[in-house]
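Any chance you could type out a protein's amino acid sequence plus the matching C-alpha cells because I've never seen that pairing?

——
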Amino acid sequence: MNDVYKMVMDFKHKYPGSVAWRVKKHCQVIEKHLNPGEKVIYAFCGQKNMEFYDIFTSCVVVLTNKRLLIGQKRVVWGYFLSSITPDLYNDLQVYQGLLFGKITIDTVKEEVILSNLPKKGLDDIETNITEFMMKEKQKYKPREEI
C-alpha cells in the first residue's frame, strides 16, 4: 500500500487543491486488486461524480502498466472498483472551471467523470493517461469485419 499512497500524496503535494478524504483507505482497495506483474505508473485522487459540490465520493485513480483503476472505499463496509483497459478506452475530455477541474473518460460502455481536481494538475493527468492509452491501444489488432 505504501507505493500507491506515496504516489497519491506526492500528487497532492505537487498540486494542492484536490478534494479527497480517506485516501489511505482508497489506496488499500487499489493495492488489493493489483495483479502480479502490475506496476503503478501514476496515481492521483479526486471525486468520482459529475458535480463539484458533491464532495463525498472520493476516489483514488491509478494508472498501471496494464490498465486504469479507480478505487473507492465505502464508509461502513464494502468498496467500489472500476477497471478500464486500453481496448475499452475511447477518449478523454478535460474541463477547467473557476476553482476545480473535471476529466471525463469515455469508454465503450460508460463515461467515468472525475471532478474536484486541481486546475494545475489537469495537464499532467491528461498527458499521463492519454500517452499511456494511445501507446497501449496500438498493440491491439483491429477487428476484422465479418
